[in-house]
Amino acid sequence: ELRKKLDPKGKPGIFLGYEPHAKAYRVLVDGKVKISKDVVVDETTSQTLHHRQNSDGSGGDEDGRRVRSRIEEEPTTQRRSGRVHQPPSEWWRATGLLAVEDEPDTITEAMDSPQAEEWRLAMTEEMASLMKNGTWKLVDCPLGVTPVPVKWVFKVKRDSSGNIERFKARLVAKGFKQREGIDYNEVYAPVSKHTTLRALLSLVATEDLELQQLDVKTAFLNGVLEEEIYMVQPPGFEEGGKTVVCKLEKALYGLKQAPRAWHTKLRKELELLGFTASEADAGLFIRYGKQRSDNVYLLVYVDDCLLITSKDNKSSLLNLKSQLASIFDIHDMGEAKFFLGMEIERNREKRTLVLSQRRFTEELLNKYSMIESKGKSVPMSTALRLQRDGEALDTEHYRYLLKSSLRSA
Length: 409
Hints:
Blueprint: E1 14-18, E2 25-29, E3 32-36, H1 61-73, H2 91-100, H3 107-112, H4 116-133, E4 136-140, E5 150-158, E6 164-173, H5 194-207, E7 210-216, E8 230-231, E9 244-248, H6 258-272, E10 276-277, E11 284-287, E12 296-301, E13 304-309, H7 314-327, E14 330-335, E15 338-339, E16 342-347, E17 352-356, H8 358-367, H9 396-408
Antiparallel strand pairs: 1-2, 2-3, 4-9, 5-6, 7-13, 7-14, 8-9, 10-11, 11-12, 12-13, 15-16, 16-17
């Protein structure tokens, strides 16, 4: 039967394995072994092969032997090449690699995962930091008060190369349960603009300035609350009876007013150190010196900070780090190489600085098994033929991929 114009061009077959000497698949189609590199695996259904029954009721063993004989007798042309060949990367292999270091959604998943000991240590460190900061005190829950629930959020921290730096556990309040006018009032907190970041990095490259990075640990815990808020105890670290809750003394991640409380605290401390907030960007703080080369720029995006000054003013930069360390618990990351998901590649001799999102792009390609895909000049194949009666496609993955691509751009 001839194929019509709108009929699909592909043929159904049975996956047999890989062609050992080429990047291709071996597929049984119409009783013959075909070698093809263009194969779409049906992952939505699990099909079972059944032997056909002969008219006398006997099984189809003879047919099976005949098919196996054809497979064994099918000649294959072996092509020798100096290149190193490997089987095509499959979706399940990429998924398996990602699942090794998957981030759990709940404390139960964390304790049942192979990295249970790492997650347990991360939660213990987070609790120690909260206790040291005096974030709350345990009290009996007042009558008529509904405490704000909390949850653990687990994150694998990586460097610019994608290697694991540490396992991070953070206690987060479920701020969506808060009631406006009772649990919070003002919530707005400014962050630095990306245009300001690009302008400063351009200045760093052209004038060969020092570019250092700081990370404020548990930044939101430094904010002082103006409201009276009660919170349930952290899962896995409960003390006392069921009526015992936490009365918050400091802000906590997840609270609607936490970003504002942290920014207010940070701005107050920086002003005491001689900094002035920029009128053009509330996330940029400047400490002016006698000369322009003595100026120190501090760019803040929530808890990530960039310090910029001239090479001749490096001693002032070191002094500022010591002052900030005496106020907040900071992590000195040295020369900035990875900021807000962007890799910073700098050549001081040529005075160039390049921003890229290579790691983010590779993770996105791995997620959709496109790491070995070739680039195209058009978003859709010019040879695509639409079918009159086709199945509706799930657009969720397409929307996510499109949104992520726009973000990387």
